[in-house]
Design goal:
Order of helices and strands: EHEEHEEHEEHEEHHEEHEHH
Number of helices: 9
CATH architecture: Alpha-Beta Complex
CATH topology: Spore Coat Polysaccharide Biosynthesis Protein SpsA, Chain A
CATH class: Alpha Beta
Number of strands: 12
Strand order of the largest sheet: 3-2-1-4-9-6-10-12
Largest sheet: 8 strands, mixed
Length: 329
């Protein structure tokens, strides 16, 4: 690095009322777990909003010298102010955003992100999302699934020594049920240049719903629609959601109303044109045997989509076409 005091990458992790889950997420971002990288290359900016169950920050020195922790007394129900505070702390040329601190990642995420940024500073690198357990976590409560059951599931693997074993106890995210070779709706572990985040205005303060509402979907599509963005997907890596009673990943009577309000806000902000990001992904990185079933699943669903679109004469990647037309004007 030209400036030894400045890391190449800053990774933002936001936490609230998830001490155990956040601790496990942060371990997966440490150099004890991440492969092929050093502490000097990246920093992890952890911002926690205070709650009745605060994270034990005394464990951070054991994770390495590249963790920076901030606790905020936030009165609103949204993490958006915490996200923008975190952006102000970042020193990296590129930034990774993990709005939900309950997401464990696989061991070469940081290495591949740094490689993708070397390929192009306009790389928009996304990690496919999964959830621990056999089915969507908002269905789990009535089936006896809770934090204790999930921890037993984690303990049945050797994930600390081989993080790819997380694939063996997980299922694909409900937000992208057709895999990562189709238009992607959201990503809870995304990386772009600091200037790209600045271009989209960081986190939009209008997202005031509990948990931030659909702020993650909004930021994902906003970054993906930057004309220069190059969408890179890491098919062999994963971001694994842990059960913690989140707003959209829990089971409760008002869940569908909550989701409906999120959808309505997105449509309002996008002029009724909000949809999945329809840009063709570039796949990057090795794919271990434990991740290959999801590659096969994604390929199968992609082939079926291609046949449907070909029969109708539709374009597979409409956003790419739109941006190309705007560029030619």
């Amino acid at each position: 690095m030209a400036d030894s005091a400045r890391p190449l990458l800053s990774v933002i992790v936001i936490g609230y009322k998830m001490p155990k889950q956040l601790a496990q997420t942060l371990y997966t971002l440490s150099t004890a777990y991440q492969q092929g990288v050093t502490e000097q290359e990246y920093e992890v900016v952890v911002v926690e909003n205070t709650s009745s169950e605060d994270f034990d920050e005394s464990i951070l020195p054991g994770l390495g010298g590249n963790f920076r922790f901030f606790r905020r007394d936030e009165r609103s129900h949204t993490p958006v102010p915490a996200i923008n505070f975190a952006f102000e702390q970042c020193r990296g040329q590129a930034i990774g955003l993990m709005i939900d601190g309950a997401r464990m990642v696989t061991p070469r995420v940081i290495q591949y992100v740094l490689m993708s940024q070397r390929i192009s500073p306009d790389s928009f690198t996304v990690v496919p999302g999964y959830h621990l357990g056999e089915q969507g976590q908002h269905f789990n409560v009535s089936n006896g699934y809770d934090e204790e059951v999930e921890q037993q599931l984690l303990d049945s693997t050797n994930w600390k020594d081989n993080g790819y074993e997380l694939f063996s106890i997980a299922d694909i995210s409900g937000a992208n049920p057709n895999g990562y070779l189709q238009p992607i709706m959201e990503c809870n572990c995304m990386f772009a240049s600091a200037s790209s985040f600045e271009r989209i205005g960081f986190a939009d303060e209008r997202f005031t719903f509990r948990g931030g509402g659909a702020i993650n979907l909004h930021m994902f599509r906003s970054l993906g629609m930057l004309p220069a963005s190059k969408l890179i997907v890491l098919p062999g890596e994963g971001s694994f959601h842990q059960f913690h009673g989140g707003v959209t990943t829990s089971e409760y009577d008002g869940l569908e109303r909550e989701r409906a309000s999120h959808r309505a806000q997105l449509q309002e902000l996008w002029g009724g044109e909000f949809h999945s990001l329809r840009r063709e992904p570039v796949l990057f990185g090795a794919i271990t045997p434990l991740a290959q079933d999801y590659l096969a699943f994604s390929v199968d669903r992609s082939k079926k989509r291609y046949k449907r679109f070909k029969a109708r004469g539709d374009r597979l990647w409409e956003d790419d076409n739109q941006l190309a037309m705007e560029f030619r004007k």
